Amino acid sequence: MASVTITGSRQSTRAHGDPLVPRMLLGRRLRELRERRGLSRREAARTIGGSASKITRLELGRSASRPRDIAALLTRYGADDERTTLLALAEQTATRAWWHDDGDIVPAWVRPYLSAEQAAKLVRTFEAQFVPGLLQTEAYARALIRRVNPEPQVERRVEFRMRRQRVLRRRPRPLNLWVVLDEQALWRPIGGAETMRGQIRHIIELCGRPNVTVQIAPFGICGRAAGDGPLTLIRFPQQGLPDMVYLERANGAVYPGRRAEIEWHWHVFNTLVTEAAPPERTPRILAGMLTTY
What we know:
Layout: E1 4-7, H1 20-36, H2 41-47, H3 52-59, H4 67-77, H5 83-92, H6 111-119, E2 122-127, H7 138-148, H8 151-164, E3 176-182, H9 184-187, H10 193-206, E4 212-217, H11 221-226, E5 231-235, E6 244-249, E7 252-255, H12 259-275, H13 282-290
């Protein structure tokens, strides 16, 4: 699968009501069944009166699927023994994403990541400019959001960001989060000294949680390895689903999808981990910063 650029333009099949994982699971299995029968996408598409690109979208999990189309494909693929399970997945692909009610304030390019974040087993992220959203305090988020959004939207966007963070307290399995944070992000005075002191204290508190790891990297060291922006890696609990790479850029995002690309970005993150200070030093480093704010 090629890199995808999007711009402003329990081993269960369910993912907290969000359709992303059901779409990915269904698409993966449909591709396997089609290839097992030796059919091209064009040949499969004739079964449902569609195009090869429609089959591609289904197999990549990028669109909802009609149960009648899936039923026809399963018949063509000779997969009657999986019909009940896969038709149930097809029904789930049309559910609303968890962010749906706030879709007017959620850019199209970030929606796949937001769905993946809530369904993920683990997230690994590097950030050089700002504290990542999952670690932000309300005050920090408010000051950051106020920079680029009209005032009437600010509080709603802050509330949405805080709601995202519930995944860190999710039961029974909270998200496993590992952050490498360039220290320059903590010296950038978002909202002023008091806001930054509160933000640093909050990160120290989060470091005490077993599912949160934070490493601090010296100025600029990680930027040379990570390239020109934040890097986030997502792994799902469902076996067989590929990891997701999310590269946020100005007014858009890139989602590299080829296996080699995914492996490369894991290598980059692992390099960042070795260049940053060990996690056990993070509380001391942050406490030292507090004395200067």
